[in-house]
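We now fix the convention by which a protein and its fold are recorded. The integers have meaning only within a learned vocabulary of local backbone shapes. The record below shows the convention in full.
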Amino acid sequence: MSSLVQAIFDYARLNYGVEPDYPFPTAPDYPVLRHPDTRKWFALIMDVPRYRLGLSGEERVDILNIKCDPLLSGSLRLQEGYFPAYHMNHDGWLTILLDGTVPIADITPLLDMSFELTMIKSKKKNE
């Protein structure tokens, strides 16, 4: 496991009290982070061949899929290391390359957004 993936897990544990969950029998190394109230995913980590992201090469790279505001997602995808969601709805999800291109300091606010977007709707209104 890369240090960036470990940093994401540590952040989720410290800030949300969440541990990774491994729900896929056919992909046992793909962890998801679930919101404790709704059990909805707010993050999915997997490895994919670089060419699946439109990058050159066959090498597998770690990626993070997060729920994201569509307007923000569109502008982030103009920056290096951000992509339309891999294997998810492109409007509501964003893929982040976990090779160090995007620093953890830029990833954690996006994790916060994803966590908030997956919380119970009544809690959102009460804040």
In short: Strands lie at 32-34, 41-49, 60-67, 82-84, 93-97.
